[in-house]
Design goal:
Number of helices: 1
Strand content: 35-45%
Order of helices and strands: HEEEEEEEEEEEE
Number of domains: 3
Radius of gyration: 27 Å
Oligomer: single chain
Distance between the termini: 82 Å
Helix content: 10-25%
């Protein structure tokens, strides 16, 4: 083989090596970005799929990229993700698809109706396609009043509902401490407004401050 042939082979080998290295790092970044978003949804019921929309040749290349979400970023949908490599920060455009449970109306509700647990149904589906403020659990809707007509099967959102304070700050409340095999009743004074299933702080007669959950009947439950 002549000298030119040797140089050509060496150059070709170098380019192949660089391409392989880039592909490996790109694959690593894709895995790391997916793992980053998986950690945002630790519950086993949520399924996360991340599509990186930025062309692969524009991805930063380093072994340990520092990945962060911008402040006030939505947890799904189109997200501009900050990736810092060797002190240089780039933004990678991603589409985060999340499937999980969300709350829908179990029946048609008229404006002004108070919702009970029987009016709420949990459904499995894509969370990133839901309207803003969609409810991922029923607690917020329980005991709330609908601000407009809600159709059966319609996803529930925060701006559809007005929560009713079942406990108001300064109100005397009954506190029920629930232990294994025993219950203890006592009284205290609520320190904040709270709706059903909200957390509320209570100052007891002794001066001690405890936190509990508001039950349907307005009592405060504390698990021991």
């Amino acid at each position: 083989m002549n000298r030119n042939g040797v140089i050509t082979c060496a150059l070709g080998g170098l380019l192949l090596s660089q391409a392989a290295t880039h592909q490996a790092m790109a694959a690593d970044l894709s895995v790391q970005v997916n793992q980053f978003f998986q950690q945002q949804y630790p519950d086993k019921e949520s399924q996360v799929k991340v599509v990186i929309k930025t062309p692969q040749n524009q991805w930063p290349q380093c072994d340990m990229p520092e990945i962060t979400l911008p402040a006030n970023a939505r947890p799904w949908g189109n997200i501009s993700l900050s990736v810092r490599c060797d002190g240089v920060r780039r933004f990678i455009q991603t589409q985060v698809q999340v499937s999980g449970h969300y709350a829908v109306a179990a029946r048609q509700l008229a404006a002004g109706e108070k919702m009970t647990l029987q009016d709420i149904k949990m459904k499995q589906g894509r969370l990133d396609t839901l309207p803003p403020g969609a409810l991922l659990e029923p607690n917020f809707a329980q005991g709330a009043v609908s601000l407009r007509q809600i159709n059966a099967g319609q996803p529930l959102t925060r701006n559809m509902l007005r929560r009713l304070w079942i406990i108001k700050a300064g109100q005397d409340v009954q506190v029920l401490a629930l232990g294994e095999g025993f219950n203890v009743n006592s009284n205290g004074k609520a320190m904040n407004n709270a709706a059903i299933q909200d957390n509320v702080r209570v100052r007891m007669a002794s001066g001690q401050i405890v936190s509990g959950t508001v039950a349907d009947d307005g009592t405060v439950h504390i698990l021991l």
